[in-house]
Amino acid sequence: MSLEYDAFISSGKKWFCHVDDDNYLNTGSLLKLLSQYSHTQDVYIGRPSLERPIEATERPGTDEMQVRFWFATGGAGFCLSRGLSLKMKPWASDGTFMTTAEHIRLPDDCTVGYIVEALLGVSLIRSGLFHSHLENLGLVSDIHNQVTLSYGTVDNSRNTVNVKGLFTIEEDPTRFRSVHCLLDKRGRKGWTDGGENVNICRVPPLPTPENVSRQLGDLCLPLYNSTRRQAF
């Protein structure tokens, strides 16, 4: 988080949004949400994972003081305006973020909440459009308007959003591929793993003797025909 923050400050961009690598980000909904706020104002928006403020122990010198504050869980994602991010610099820039985290002995997303709420006195804006694996994702509705989605397992059971798509659970265990194709009805190319983008929403053609022959060679065609005749 410290490196993310420093990179954002150097970039001159308007919004700092953190999402984990197991989130699905709906950029259209994110832009719609952020358009309701000014990046020059103090904006800290996300979703808390707890039903009460977290408690931490500050250690200024040799004294200890209890402090309570809300924080947006990093597992669901959150956003900070540039105006607020700049005010965080004394406790977050050039490596001081790690020092602040060690000061309260809490993870990075909690540290952001500590800086914003406890030190700067700015309240978290709660949004139900951010989602983490800590909630029952099967209850999430209106997929089109959600900003982030997640997935996980609970007691050996999958915790995913319920979305009907072209892909089975085995083909799409996170349901992100189905979500992407639901949102992207224009058939644009999908995500990439570093190579060329591909249209992940295209349903592969059913096997035929012709394309099987092209892929596996003419020697496999008699076996394919034999297997097809026996299937019923």
Automatic annotation (TrEMBL):
GO terms for cellular component: endomembrane system; membrane. The keyword Transmembrane applies. It is a single-pass membrane protein; Single-pass type II membrane protein. Residues 1-175 form the Fringe-like glycosyltransferase domain. GO terms for molecular function: glycosyltransferase activity. It is found in: Endomembrane system; Membrane. InterPro entries: Fringe-like_glycosylTrfase. Keywords: Glycosyltransferase, Membrane, Signal-anchor, Transferase, Transmembrane, Transmembrane helix. PANTHER family: FRINGE-RELATED. Belongs to the glycosyltransferase 31 family. This is Beta-1,3-N-acetylglucosaminyltransferase lunatic fringe-like. It comes from Pundamilia nyererei.
